[in-house]
Amino acid sequence: GQGVHMAQSGQQSEPPQDIKPKEAKKGSIFALVAVSHALNHIQSGVLTVFYPIFREEFGIGYLGIGFLSTINQLVSSLLQIIFGFLSRFVGRGVLLGVGNIIVSLGGVGLGISVGYAQLVFWTSIRSMGASAQHPVGAATLVSHFPKNRARMLGFHQSAGNIGGWVAPLLGSFLLLFMTWRHVFWVIAVPSLLVGIAYFFFRELVVPAKTPVTEGWKKSR
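Below the sequence we write its predicted structure tokens.
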């Protein structure tokens, strides 16, 4: 009787040990998405810090700066719809990974820009990559933490806000040691690393199963 009881108690103690790695992986995914969101806002925030420099170096008027700012916000907002749709068929980690790599590429491009047209082009590229973060990042957290949906969405939004707060201070501080071009290159590196990191989580690379995707596959 004691042997059976010990065997049963031993079997009951195994699941918590199996749960720990899963919880650790979920925590890593949460940290990755949060850092990703913060970095996207840092990239965008640093761009606004350099508007006065752009005016002086490229001879841009207030209208040009306003248009650049509009592009920065408009492209990111409009493409959120497309990334939200693609997340039904493409792994969320793929979208977020590629998005962050594009953000990094946009930062490098801004750093080598020699005219206003190039600033507009690379700002658009950067915003295209950043547009994946809000719909796809939020959906990723909700799917991995279904019991804490509101809290996860709050943390996700807070991470972006922190990035927005840090950006002006970080950009101004780095300008003490390097040019504005080098600042873009420096902050592009962590975005690239975060983008690559998404591909190491199999749970994120595999497309999420939803009623829409299942119905689409059956129709084929």
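Confidence is low (pLDDT under 50) at residues 4-15, 211-220.
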